Amino acid sequence: MKKLQSDSSSPLYHQLMQRLKEDIEKGTYPVGSRIPPEHELESLYRLSRVTVRRALAELTAEGMLERKQGKGTFVSTPRISHDLKSIHSFHDACKQNGFQPGTRVIHIREEEAGPQDLEELELREGSHIVETLRIRLADGEPVVLEKNHFSMAFAYLENENLAGSLYNILRDYGIEPKQGTHDISMTYATENQAKLLSIEPGTPLMRLHEVVFDQKGRPLHNSIQLIRGDRFVFRI
Q1: Half-sphere exposure of 94 (CA within 13 A, CB side)
Q2: The whole model's pTM is what?
Q3: Are 28 and 20 in contact (CB under 8 A)?
Q4: Is 220 exposed, middle or buried (CB count within 10 Å of its CB: 0-12, 13-18, 19+)?
Q5: Which domains does the chain have, with CATH numbers?
Q6: Cα–Cα distance measured from residue 235 to residue 96, given in angstroms and rounded to the nearest whole number
Q7: Over 70: is that where the pLDDT of 54 sits?
Q8: pLDDT tier, 176 (very low <50, low <70, confident <90, very high otherwise)
């Protein structure tokens, strides 16, 4: 085993993090497996307990490890990282993180615009919107329940295949999602939402409310996404 370098410019805790990441990536510690306890890592790498604990805490914060009270530290199921500082589709976020994206379309239909739609999409009273409801999949597993509202200027979406990236479809029409506002809160899965996301009713979910604007600063759509926190992490 290659020893950690005490004279390196990289701190020892960071070197241990990298070593554990490499071991996880090459399958030494598979997803769901327990990594060696702190005292074994101390002995194995000749490190202090403070150094080991910091490395494990950092990897836990990154979502690579999870601690189970009284049981130890385990390798987490990988999570999709999504940067809110730029507008990316779920499809692109999946690919950037090494997951195979997928989509299950629940419906696309015309609805009467609600008060929030009138304000956020800058519509007139009595307007209608196009609503899309989709389940977003990562490696075949449902991770996001996504509802989008578009003005009727985007009625052509009803004739498009929405099983891929909506943003790629919009780009084919010369529309580029450029910026957006984001509000994140916590909610709990209803019975129907839980069924769609293959989780238990009452499971905590992240609720992301977005208003996205195009390259000319015009409202493009608003959305509500209910997201499994065990499979998704946001970076701000």
Answers
A1: 19
A2: 0.70
A3: no
A4: buried
A5: 12-75 (1.10.10.10), 80-235 (3.40.1410.10)
A6: 14
A7: yes
A8: very high
Alpha-carbon distance of 72 to 106, in angstroms, equals: 40
For 82-124, what is each residue's pLDDT tens digit?
666 666 677 777 777 778 889 999 999 999 999 999 999 999 9
Are the CB atoms for 148 and 219 separated by under 8 Å? no
Nearest to 23, CA basis, from 33, 13, 9, 8:
33
Q: What is the pLDDT of residue 202?
A: 95
Scanning 97-164, the segments in alpha helix (DSSP H) are 115-120
Q: How crowded is residue 42: how many other Cβ atoms within 10 Å of its Cβ?
A: 17
Contact 227, 144 (CB under 8 A): yes
pLDDT of residue 236: 55
Alpha-carbon span 72 to 109, nearest angstrom = 48
Fill in the amino acid letter for 18. Q
Strand intervals (E) in 72-218: 72-75, 80-83, 101-112, 128-138, 141-151, 177-188, 204-214
Which residues, other chains included, contact 231 with Cβ-Cβ below 8 Å and sequence gap of 6+?
77, 79, 80, 138, 141, 143
Task: For tokens 């209608």, name the residue.
Answer: 128
Measure the CA–CA gap between 78 and 84, rounded to whole angstroms: 19
Contacts of 78 (CB under 8 A, 6+ apart): 31, 63, 64, 97, 98, 99
